[in-house]
């Protein structure tokens, strides 16, 4: 089977000058071939256990206990126990920019970058706490240099640079529909970021976990680059999770409608889990409680809090591998560069949302959607630069 996988590699091996063969061989040797077992395995969606609903700390509960939650969270932040992890290794293909997504300028009358929005949100918390929160930024080999240069150019948006660390996530090969590893050009494999699920193992491999230990960080707040209303190290969320005794927490919003395309926090075989919208039957998606609310109505917004000791415990457990059909530019047998207009193969990704099922429990913490959820996936339409601008303006951000 490994020979089949190496089809395009071996074709090039025969043609390459001696000097370049070793470099290509080294890339082929570095491939984790066990990754491809996922091709024959049932889809992750088909391996789910018994799904039941999960309760949440709802907005009304938070309103009552906010002072208590906030105080507990601020104590933890002031004690240096909370770190933040910005997932910025994605390729942002839907946005259509080849620059890192965080460098996109969404300002109208002056420059306002996505990274800047996030740093401003973080600074609101650190100003209130009177201490800084270490920020670990995950990039990929594709966007690492640009990301670091951008932060330098903007003087880390006023954040102390000792508190900002960059690390690079791992890359994995892509294959065609026959399972053959694709080549980008004569001497390089097609490699792409391995999804956002590898963040913690990449932190361990790149020495970031040593930094976490050295600073005494006990909790990590992981969040996506593209939600410009993202509250980072939110004291109330941190406090509520700590006081709940759970080893993880997830911010959730009420689904806008039963068909909304968001993952939903639930229980799977009694443990916390996230079920994707396409894994839910119509019946499940439309099920309602006696009070009229959707039974599976708490959508996740990629803002999680994890206990570091628990992450270390599960670090060597394998996350499910999602096989994703994509349009993958590659070099064909004749040496021609092909930019397909239709999907032509598979990429392999692990997802941070699958880590929730590895936790003992997860506190669902409900937030007001229009205050905390403005994802930028597209240029226009739903979850876009346009919709985020509207929401930022509504929240008093001048663009
Ligand atoms: P998305 O799933 O929206 O992917 O990522 P994306 O790559 O940014 O965008 P598309 O799908 O190509 O348009 C959700 C979050 O996970 C991060 C992204 O940077 C974003 O913050 N991510 C995604 C990574 O850090 N690494 C990855 O390999 C994939």
Radius of gyration equals 22 Å
- Assembly context of the chains: single chain
- Small molecules bound: uridine 5'-triphosphate
Major beta-sheet overview: 7 strands, mixed
> How far apart lie the N and C ends?
55 Å
Low-confidence stretches: none
What is the beta-strand fraction?
Answer: 15-25%
Tell me the strand order in the biggest sheet.
4-3-2-8-12-9-17
The class by helix and strand makeup works out as alpha/beta
Give the count of helical stretches: 14
Number of strands: 17
How are the secondary structure elements laid out?
Layout: H1 2-5, H2 7-15, H3 18-30, H4 37-40, E1 51-52, H5 59-78, E2 82-87, H6 114-129, E3 135-139, H7 144-153, E4 164-168, E5 171-173, E6 175-176, E7 191-193, H8 199-205, H9 208-215, E8 219-224, H10 235-244, E9 248-254, E10 264-268, E11 271-275, H11 282-286, E12 298-307, H12 308-314, E13 322-326, E14 330-331, E15 337-338, E16 345-349, E17 363-366, H13 369-372, H14 385-394
Helix pairs in contact: 5-10
Uridine 5'-triphosphate binds at residues 87-94, 101, 138, 169, 193-196, 224-226, 377.
């Amino acid at each position: 089977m490994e020979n089949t996988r190496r089809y395009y590699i071996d074709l090039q091996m025969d043609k390459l000058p001696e000097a370049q063969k070793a470099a290509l061989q080294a890339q082929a040797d570095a491939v984790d071939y066990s990754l491809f077992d996922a091709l024959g395995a049932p889809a992750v969606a088909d391996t789910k256990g018994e799904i039941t609903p999960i309760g949440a700390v709802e907005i009304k509960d938070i309103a009552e206990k906010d002072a208590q939650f906030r105080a507990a969270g601020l104590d933890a932040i002031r004690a240096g126990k909370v770190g933040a992890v910005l997932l910025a290794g994605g390729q942002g293909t839907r946005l259509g920019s080849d620059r890192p997504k965080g460098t996109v300028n969404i300002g109208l009358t002056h420059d306002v970058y996505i990274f800047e929005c996030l740093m401003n949100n973080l600074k609101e918390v650190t100003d209130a706490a009177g201490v800084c929160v270490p920020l670990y930024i995950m990039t990929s080999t594709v966007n690492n240099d640009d990301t670091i240069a951008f932060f330098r150019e903007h003087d880390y948006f006023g954040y102390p640079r000792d508190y900002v660390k960059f690390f690079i996530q791992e890359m994995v090969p892509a294959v065609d529909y026959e399972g053959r590893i694709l080549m980008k050009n004569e001497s390089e494999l097609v490699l792409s970021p391995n999804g956002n699920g590898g963040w913690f193992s990449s932190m361990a491999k790149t020495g970031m976990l040593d930094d976490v230990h050295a600073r005494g960080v006990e909790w990590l707040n992981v969040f996506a680059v593209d939600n410009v209303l993202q509250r980072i190290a939110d004291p109330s969320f941190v406090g509520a999770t700590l006081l709940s005794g759970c080893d993880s927490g997830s911010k959730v919003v009420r689904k806008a409608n039963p068909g909304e395309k968001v993952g939903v926090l639930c229980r799977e075989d009694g443990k916390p889990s996230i079920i994707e919208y396409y894994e839910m039957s119509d019946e499940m998606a439309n099920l309602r409680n006696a009070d009229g609310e959707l039974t599976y109505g708490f959508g996740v917004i990629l803002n999680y809090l994890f206990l570091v000791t628990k992450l270390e415990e599960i670090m060597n457990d394998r996350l499910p591998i999602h096989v994703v059909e994509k349009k993958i530019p590659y070099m064909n047998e004749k040496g021609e560069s092909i930019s397909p207009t239709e999907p032509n193969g598979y990429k392999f990704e692990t997802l941070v949302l699958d880590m929730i099922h590895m936790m003992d429990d997860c506190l669902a913490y409900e937030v007001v959607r229009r205050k905390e959820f403005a994802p930028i996936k597209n240029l226009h339409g739903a979850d876009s630069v346009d919709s985020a601008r509207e929401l930022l303006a509504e929240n008093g951000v001048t663009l």
